Each structure stands twice: as C-alpha cells, then as structure tokens.
Amino acid sequence: MIVRIGTRGSPLALAQSEWVRREVEARFPDVRVELVRIKTTGDKILDSPLSKVGGKGLFVKEIEEALLREDVDVAVHSMKDVPAELPPGLGLMAYPEREDPRDALITSGNRGLEDLPRGARIGTSSLRRAAQILKMRPDFCIVSLRGNVDTRLGKLDSGEVEAVVLAMAGLRRLGREERVTRALEPAEFLPAIGQGALGLEMRTGDDRVLKAFGFLNHEPTEHRVRAERALLLRLEGGCQVPIAGHAEIEGATITLRGLVAELDGSRVISGRVEGDASHPEKIGVELADRLLREGAGEILKRLLEGNE
Q1: pLDDT recorded at residue 54
Q2: Do 3 and 74 touch, CB atoms closer than 8 A?
C-alpha cells in the first residue's frame, strides 16, 4: 500500500511530514509513505504580510486542491495555518499529540523584552504577536518578517532586528531550541489558534487512508484544538485580525482563553471559559460570544472593513 503525503517544501513542513511518515511505516510495515512537495501561494509571496495578501489559507489551498484531485492522500498541516472552514469533501481526521504551544522570544544578547532599549525592532509577521508585544511595550518598532525559521533567525543575527518571536514547536522540531531566550507563557502571551498542533487532512470517507493514519490521533489534543477553532470560526477571524486562543484540559474540564486586540495593542478584549472537555465546540462558541459582547465585535468589524 502506497500513501502520498502532500507537504510544503519548507524545512519545518518536511520535518513534520517525515515524522508522520516514520510513525506510520513503523506501525504498518506493509505501508509505504511518499512525500509530495507542493509549493503554496504563501511560500511564493514572501515580500508582503499575510494579512495583506489573503491570510493563512495561502499555505494550504494548493495542497487541498491536490487532495481533492486525488494527487495526494493526506496533508500534514501546522494547525495554526489552517482556516476555520475546510472545503467540502475534506476533513481533519487526526491530531497527533501537541508540541509546546508557546511562543518563544529570541533576542540579541539574551535579553528579555523588559531589558531591550526603547524603540527596539521586534521581528514578527503575526498581527497577534505584534499586538500583544505592543501592549507590553508600546515603544517597540514592529518589523514584518516572512520566510522560514532560519531566514528569520538570520535577520536577528545580522542585526536587522533586536528580537524575533517564533513558535516554540517549530524551533523544537527543527532542533533550534537552544536559540530561545524565553518561552512566553500563555497566561501572559496567548498563542495562535492551534499553535504547536498538527492536523492530518484527508478526503472524507477515505477509510483506507484513515486506517493507516488514524492511530496518530491524540484525543486531548483534538479537543483542545477543536475548542480553539470553534472560537476562531465564531469570530470569523483569520490573519487579518489579532485573535489568539489557547485551551488546556485537566481531567474532564477544558479551559479556553482567548483574546481579540487592536493592531497597536491599545485595546485587548480577553476572557476565559471552562466546561465539559467532551463538548469543545460549545466552549469555543461560548467564549467567542462573550468576547463579542464585551467589544470584540467592534474591533473585528473595523479591521475587516479596513482590509476590504
């Protein structure tokens, strides 16, 4: 049995897909997994912020089209790159156990945010990260960075910026964890929806592929990500607005924190909801409705109209 994984060609995407391949072939010796590299629009457009060119769907559209054409059988996504709504005929069928969901601060001279000088240049392509950084330090200058992990670290090493903020999960998967100055805890700095989690997207009803990959599903990760994505879907958000969400499970209880922010961090609407971990979407919708009532709707409406 041959199964084809559609993957982006970045070092991180390949590392993630290679991990899935090894796990499946170790579990099923009669299955051979092939990686098919697909260049997405997000990989081609590197000179503009994602918020200006179409958002996170730019990293998955071509791979989803390949799935629907049956050119590939599975897509391995970083869940923070996956839009809240999927095309008809496709579904997220497995969520491997989540890596570290935190953001990581990497600075020159191993300094914390509080130690950087006024006006320091902070590199990030994320409106969510920028808003939370500016809330802490309005004096900072945000520099938009695109490209893979090594490209962004190179901007720091060359002195173009004094700090960068990247996903801890990506750094760990690439063996770059030693570069981290400080992990930013979710209680103070909320990560992106689905950050640190992988999702395996397949054609619905393709039982042959589901049997080969379904064992990778980690139920607590699935419930956490489903709660976060329900929050995102209800808020109708994407890369054009600063939205963050992070769920944790303890016993049978799931706790979801979320926020919506102004681009400059001058106003942040945040909240948390607890509930039954077996109904994650309900928790996501409940928190989204609370944030909307408290003023998030005004922020979202203005920002989305500004991007039209």
Answers
A1: 52
A2: yes
The 10s digit of each residue's pLDDT in 36-72 is: 999 876 665 555 555 554 555 667 889 999 999 999 9
pTM, 2 dp: 0.91
Cα 257 to chain center, whole Å? Answer: 15
Strand partners, 304: none
Which residue type sits at 159? G
Would you call 71 a catalytic residue per the annotation? Answer: no
Residue type, 191: P
Provide the pairing of β-strand 103-107 with 182-184.
antiparallel
Give Cα 32 to chain centroid, integer Å. Answer: 28
Residue 86 in contact with residue 226, Cβ under 8 Å?
A: no
Rounded Cα distance, 43 and 148, in Å:
9
Q: How far is Cα 49 from Cα 240, in angstroms, rounded to an integer?
A: 10
Q: Provide the 3-class DSSP secondary structure of residue 184.
A: strand
- Write the burial class of residue 235 (CB in 10 Å: 0-12 exposed, 13-18 middle, 19+ buried): buried
Q: Pick the catalytic residue from 81, 100, 103, 206.
A: 81
d(CA 8, CA 41): 10
| Residue 239 near residue 131, CB atoms below 8 Å | no
Domains of the chain: 1-96+197-217 (3.40.190.10), 103-184 (3.40.190.10), 218-308 (3.30.160.40)
CA angle 253, 255, 256 (to 5 degrees): 145
